[in-house]
Design brief:
The complex is a heterodimer of chains A (about 100) and B (about 475).
Chain A: H1 7-16, H2 23-40, E1 64-65, H3 75-79, E2 85-86, E3 89-93
Antiparallel strand pairs in A: 2-3
Helix pairs in contact in A: 1-2
Chain B: H1 3-6, E1 7-18, E2 55-56, H2 57-69, E3 77-78, E4 81-84, E5 94-97, E6 107-113, E7 116-129, E8 133-136, E9 146-150, E10 157-163, H3 170-187, E11 199-209, E12 219-224, H4 227-246, E13 254-259, E14 264-270, E15 280-281, E16 288-289, H5 292-299, H6 306-315, H7 320-327, H8 330-340, H9 346-363, H10 375-387, H11 392-405, H12 409-416, H13 424-437, H14 439-446, H15 452-463, H16 470-481
Parallel strand pairs in B: 12-13
Antiparallel strand pairs in B: 1-10, 1-11, 3-16, 4-5, 4-15, 6-7, 7-10, 8-9, 11-12, 13-14
The chains are: A alpha+beta (about 100), B alpha+beta (about 475).
Bound molecules: zinc ion (ZN).
Zinc ion binds near residues 24, 27, 42 and 44 of chain B.
Amino acid sequence: MNMTISREDVEYVAALARLELTEPEIQEYTEQLNSILDYAAMLERLDTDDVVPTAHAVPIHNVLREDQVRPSINHAKALRNAPDGDEGFFRVPRISLT
Amino acid sequence: MVVANQFEMVCGLEVHVELQTKTKIFCGCTTEFGGEQNTHVCPVCLGMPGALPVLNREVVNFAIKAGLALDCEIAEFSKFDRKNYFYPDLSKNYQTSQFDLPICGKGGLEIEIDGEKKWIGITRAHMEEDAGKLVHSGETISTSNESSVDYNRAGVPLLEIVSEPDMRSIPEVLAYLEKLVQILEYTEVSDCRLEQGSVRFDVNVSLRPFGTDTLGIRTETKNLNSFSSVRRCMEYEVARQARVLNAGENVVQETRTWDEGQGITLTLRSKEEAHDYRYFPEPDLPPLVIDKEWVERIRKTLPELPAARRARLQTLGLSAYDAAVITQAKAMADFFDEALTYYTDAKTLANWVMGDMTRLLNSNQCSVVDSPISAKQLAELLQLINKGTLSGKIAKSVLEEMYSTSKDASMIVKEKGLAQISDEGALLGIIDGVLAANPQSVEDYRAGKDKAIGFLVGQIMKATKGQANPGLVNQLLKEKLA
Ligand SMILES: [Zn+2]
């Protein structure tokens, strides 16, 4: 297998996604991601010189709405699925910047 | 500044402008300010699974309008992307923004410092959504155990305008910002209320030895919300970087934050901790195709921009300075132009607008849009001076009366009997009385003491409570004494 994705890549992406991985998981995901990329590499065999880059999978554009206010939802509804809340605020645990 | 002799400053700016649409960028929630926490929200701006964003047409219109006013190319094809990051000010864990295909491409504006003109380039401008507001329980974010989040502002449309690193001094930066905000205010795409956070600035600064071409290592200070913060922040950052460089060390490439209270910048995150935003195309929003017709339709809605307006006022006889003062704010320039349709002497009008009118508004902390004196009413007052009904001096007190009552000048003149006495017969009677009462002065004048006439005029004005037409009094008096 072509090892395009290194274990450092997996650790880096896991950190970005705030995932804590065990050693066996790191190995497993490194292998899985590489095999996915290998499979997708088939596409590289196609000649795409004359193909414009795709910005969107569905061939439509300019789906717009008029600037008219529509009712919002109330506190109770907004917070119904929130793990924690207080006086209409969502409450989140300590935010660490580092 | 000592550093100015050693290093050249290189600065570029990112300016975030809130667009004044009625609704958010991707949902129908109101953008109105205030409102109880989390009451201007819906499944879309709360990032609920399955909710589909739909782009607000007016956001696109405003972005095109601002782009045209800033001389930007408008992209025929643009799209939205997800900017991924973990911070609870947005509930989706990404901000919907534009990455490689923004709506506005290259543009720029001209600044002027001490008569020297300079073009400051704009790299791009793109549409994105604003974030929500966090309130931290502790004194600072690092000592706080939890934070409360209000998503009322999440999804409010922003235009982020990115400049080229073309600025070389703090005055250039401030001139660029003033021009930029003025142009945006003219286009009315934003209310540009800095005190409410409608416009926010990120400042990128680096230093390099004079005469070198390569850029130094830069820092970015985020989220400044006034011109004075920008100035102070830059003064601090330039001095700090110069100290680092003079000590033989390297400036660390990092994002910094401005502490208004202490007047210093602090490290927010270094390059190693920098976000890797992993932009990718937003699958929920189809791309945007803007044809020439759409652009031309918006171009027609552009107002006369500040530079053109200044030039026009100068052709009407105003000095460059007066034209700049009148056009500083669009509301004042509009007031002036409206008055000009009733009263054509632009120079006299400018003196009144910049002088007594502005003084009255300022002392009452009133903006010109709320002025109790309309442009038409001011013009009528000036016409009364031209007709000889009022002297300039009495007109000033009439203006004050107009300010407090909103009455027309002619009405006040009538009610208070303030009309200037221009009736020769009436004036001659008064003049005769004054001459009879002051034979010494008459004799002095005839003996060659020209000053004596001033005293006599004064007496006549006193006798008429200042209402005598001064030109006519002088003329009649000289005829009498001849
Ligand atoms: Zn919403």
